[in-house]
Amino acid sequence: MEKKSIALAVALFIIGGLTGAVVDRFAMPHMGTEVSLGAAESLLESVTHGQAKAEKVFPGPGGLTGIEVTLEGRPTIAFATADGKYLVAGPVLNTQGTDEAHAAMLKLGLIPKPTSPATMAAKAAHTDSFVLGTSGPEVIAFVDPDCIFCHKFYEEAKPLIDAGKLRVRYVVVAFLKKSSGPKAAAILGAKDPAIAMAENENSFNEGTEEGGIEPARNPGIATVSAVKNNTRLLGESGEMATPTLIYCDQKGAATLIHGLNKESLKDFVAHLGNLQNGACQK
């Protein structure tokens, strides 16, 4: 791979917060800025070929130095090792699974604090969305047409929906691939979004991780706006991840999770509370 390509890959890595996490705090944490701003600037210049700029440095976890970075006009966080020779881009997880990079962005005000699950649920109930199922507890699901884990959720939820044991409000978003937007528009702009959703999932290509619906070529302004608004709302959760699920627990508290739990969906549904019109009912 050419150096220019490597630099671009690192730049995208910093922007997207892709996988490849560094797990720290197995050893004694060491807090303290070891790398100067000048050294951080030199490291970013070398690695990204000037595509990223270091704005400030701050003490990071496990002996790392945090770097506030501007990349393509967007603020983000990276870390440098104590010797200033290595750049850590993407999630930095501690032993509790907390992403230190995301936490730093919140602390520095680079990203807004996540909207509460209760507020997210209330907003989702008034989005351009649709509900599958007529009885059972409701779950709000933010899904991308090209998301394979959303596809797996859809397949696992369908028999429960058909059996009257679950209702799912699907909020279709688009951010994973270039085709996600036109496919989301094809679903939301259809006369019957539920049928369009079924088409996307029944023809889902698991090998390429792409939904099967034909992308909309000339979606209407209202449909495009609906996709953007849904995606913007997902961003308020604090993380662009799908599926993102919102539900009520048995104590009547709204809960939000990114991704699927390890337990079966059937067991998960058995412990849900009552969500009605975007609010938990005790």
UniProtKB/TrEMBL annotation:
GO cellular component, one term: periplasmic space
Keywords from the UniProt entry: Heme, Iron, Metal-binding
Domain Cytochrome c, residue spans: 131-276
Entry keyword Manganese: no
Domain of life: Bacteria
MF terms in GO: electron transfer activity; heme binding; metal ion binding
NCBIfam families (alphabetical): PRK11657.1 (NF008657)
Protein name: Thiol:disulfide interchange protein
